Amino acid sequence: MGFNEKISKLFTSASFGNAPTIDGLNAKKKNIAFVVLVLIVSLLPLFLSPFRVSLVGKFITYAIVALSIDLIWGYTGILSLGHGVFFGLGGYGMGMYLKLVASHGRLPDFMSWSGRTTLPWFWEFYKTAPEAILMIILVPSILAFVLGLLTFLNRIKGVYFSILSQALALVFVTLFIGLQPYTGGTNGITEFSTLFGLPIAGIKAKYMWYYVALTFLVITYIIFSSIMRTKCGRVLVAIRDGENRARFSGYQTASYKTFVYVLSALFTGIAGALFVPFSGIISPSEMSISNSIDMAIWVAVGGRGTLIGAAVGAFVVNITKTLISESFPEIWSYFIGAIFVIVVLFLPRGLTGVFTDAKDKIRVLVRKSQAAKTDE
């Protein structure tokens, strides 16, 4: 099988019956591994500078996105290459709220520069924290519901859905860049002052938001793990392995796929909102196709169909990316590309698959050794 064919199999396969997901880890081991990951991440602020704390905080939000994509890709067989849109919409929701707080409810500076004299009507929904939180939840969810319902009812799936999701990302990036007086254009929204009463650049705000993001990561994992242990979760896996068979068995597969797509978009939007205080800016680049593909790469590297693999992949890829870009600023992208090629060619089940295979080999060796001693 050639490289291009393996890329196609990994990212755009319409049938996931033979997809390289991980089934060798039971729920208990996954949960233990996740607890260890959370404990490590929770202790990192004790050893890192405030700048590094913000950086790892971003990675926590990326891990939430990775879990969301693993839910629809690893467990349901829906590969979305446009999840950056939901991440960006959640981010813009938080950015609009923080900008209004910074401008004390008055017209934001970039709107004045663009010639506007009144606040756009949709900005009114972000004047208070409860309203902003509600919109952060509703906007990505409604968009995902409409898109999911239209596509899944028409049985659009596989590579066709992936292309459609990419088109969605392209449309939203173009739209948000073009609406300069309303969204800040390519510069996005920035220059925030406070975060729920604390200076957003202050150490207290950074540490508080760090643990808020980590709490949401834990909540996301618990909710998704719980869903996969229910009948709904088993139906989602059945859809992944054979949608026609699930449909002929009497299940409304379009409804299940719409539900899981909306849920994934909702938590991706929340991750985008959590991301903004760490970055200090939200711009259309967060919605780009390349950013959406990066999200899928995190899951592929960690290992699909495990949740824990997706979270680990998000941390590993972004930590590696940061370290390499700092050491080799001119050629770091080649290193990331090489890592991806290695995963596609030699590690189709990701890092979690490597661990599972190593565990199985050790178990076989132990059994052989015990058998040899018994024969003696």
What can you see in these coordinates?
This protein is an all-alpha fold. The chain has one domain. It has helices at residues 3-11, 27-43, 50-73, 84-102, 109-113, 129-153, 159-178, 180-183, 203-228, 231-248, 253-279, 289-302, 308-327, 332-346, 350-375; strands at 189-190, 194-195, 198-199, 281-282. A two-stranded antiparallel ribbon has the order 1-4. Strand 2 (194-195) and strand 3 (198-199) form a beta hairpin. Mean pLDDT is 87; it is low at 1-9 and 12-19.
Count of β-strands: 4
- The structural domain count equals 1
The overall pLDDT, averaged over residues, is 87
Number of helices: 15
What is the element string, with H for helices and E for strands?
HHHHHHHHEEEHHHEHHHH
Largest sheet: 2 strands, antiparallel
Please compute the radius of gyration using only Cα atoms. Answer: 22 Å
Low confidence ranges: 1-9, 12-19
- The largest sheet has its strands arranged as 1-4
- Structural class, from helix and strand content? mainly alpha
Estimate the strand proportion.
Answer: under 5%
Termini distance?
A: 45 Å
Assign an overall shape.
globular
Task: Indicate the percent of residues in helices.
Answer: over 70%
